[in-house]
Amino acid sequence: MMRIVTANVNGIRAAARRGGLDWLARQDADVIALQEVRASDEQLLKVLADGGLGEWHVSAAEGRAKGHAGVAVLTRRQPTRVSSDVGPVEFTDVGRWIEVELPSDHGTVTVISTYVHTGEAETPKQDEKFRFLDAVGERLASLAENGGYAVLTGDLNICHSADDLKNWKGNVGKAGFLPEEQAHLDRWIGDHEYVDVQRALHGPGPGPYTWWSWRGKAFDNDAGWRIDYQFASRALAERATRADVGRAAAYAERWSDHAPVTVDYDVTLD
């Protein structure tokens, strides 16, 4: 069984101080995908070593801007290939994409950790978000050719439907809940035959949500957003057996403003 955990850590050093690495180390995962690491590669390796994850193979893409973005994939086995290239030159070295290839009993499995920035409706920042999503779609299509095993994990900063956002009426027209953003996910599912694994195994919502503001009573009232996903190619999704959102039991036990998403796949890594 291959267990993949994806988590936006909202700063790896802050998550470690709050107990996040202890939580991750207890999950018996084969692959851990991280987003918003917000650290240099050297800092990331040190924090992981101090947190009991120093023996893992770490593939990381550091953000160009210090203290922003940054993604990583931790694997128990050495990947056969690592790439941070999603396509367009403008997204080189921005710390939003890292993919690794792992051998398995069913051929190569490609695991991606991605961080899609929030965006802002009707601004250049939103236009950049759409261009990045275009690049992601093209890469996913390529990986799924001929029944390939691939899974995109990470923080997409998009709620696919009203089931994924508690206050959806209050967010109509805002970044994260725009029809144009949702259309990208529709194409991944419809044209490229990827599966939102957590939703497929859980069934209809509302929720479970994966992000809540630190402010106010958002967490206590479960006024959240589901923006963290595992999108698997159809061949791999057919082998998904369990999906879980690791929502903290109480506000005081949170180690990020996001909750991790764990999926088990009936695949054995070599």
What does this structure look like?
- The record marks 157 as: Transition state stabilizer.
- The protein has 270 residues and is of the alpha+beta class.
- The chain contains seven helices and twelve strands.
- The protein has helices at residues 12-17, 20-25, 41-50, 124-143, 179-190, 197-202, 234-237; strands at 2-8, 31-35, 57-61, 71-75, 81-83, 97-104, 107-115, 149-155, 194-196, 228-233, 240-245, 261-265.
- A hairpin with a 2-residue loop joins strand 6 (97-104) and strand 7.
- Helix 4 packs parallel to helix 5.
- The longest helix is centred in the middle third of the chain and has 20 residues, at 124-143.
- The protein is globular.
Helix/strand layout:
Blueprint: E1 2-8, H1 12-17, H2 20-25, E2 31-35, H3 41-50, E3 57-61, E4 71-75, E5 81-83, E6 97-104, E7 107-115, H4 124-143, E8 149-155, H5 179-190, E9 194-196, H6 197-202, E10 228-233, H7 234-237, E11 240-245, E12 261-265
Parallel strand pairs: 1-2, 7-8
Antiparallel strand pairs: 1-12, 2-4, 3-4, 5-6, 6-7, 8-10, 9-10, 11-12
Helix pairs in contact: 4-5
